[in-house]
Amino acid sequence: MRIAIANSKGGVAKTTSSIYIASVIVSRGGRAVVYDADPQSSASLWAAAAEQTADPLTFDVLPANQATLRQLAAGADPDEWAIIDAPPQGPTLDMAIKAADFVIVPASDSPMDLQQAWSTLDMARMSTPAALLLVKAERNTKAFRDTMDALNAMDTPRFDTIVPKAQSYKRSLGTNPHQLGEYRDLVTELQQIAGKQE
Ligand SMILES: Nc1ncnc2c1ncn2[C@@H]1O[C@H](COP(=O)(O)OP(=O)(O)OP(=O)(O)O)[C@@H](O)[C@H]1O
Ligand SMILES: [Mg+2]
Q: Which of 41, 107, 132, 183 is most exposed, with minimal Cβ within 10 Å?
């Protein structure tokens, strides 16, 4: 299963989600690779920081350019989960979406940010199944309720899993995460999607 994590909006937990999803897959006995296709290299920096500790990441984070992604699009190891941390725009984003079997569009619970999430989602869905993942959510706020209302009104395809705003996610930057939290439920949803796509 090849998954691209994409949103042209920055700071919506694309890299965090990539690292956590791969961590959950490995914790369940699967094989995962994160393809770092973002020129900011945040996923690679995360892996390098964890490598400096006694507790490194449990999977490889590989740099990926258009050629890497084209190769991934042409054929993938069916037993390996490829997680692509996509750049915000440009031909590498297009290639990441084409290479993926499924696209996750993370978005925060701010109605203002939904426009960019919807445009990324619409763009992705021209070639690849995709759904929105609500991240950094603060359930007891008006912003959260307004966001949910807007998603429901637009019939936006989304994951049932909602990732809350939490210090444990923020603090895990550059470490091998052990409290995998809501991302375990997300991977369960992804495994169901993978089962249906086979
Ligand atoms: N669930 C969460 N709760 C609180 N903070 C979070 C959560 N997920 C991510 N963060 C924090 O939000 C910030 C942005 O996350 P991240 O770098 O994963 O986003 P990104 O979409 O990859 O950003 P960029 O556009 O720079 O690539 C980071 O400081 C991260 O630690
Ligand atoms: Mg990032």
A: 41
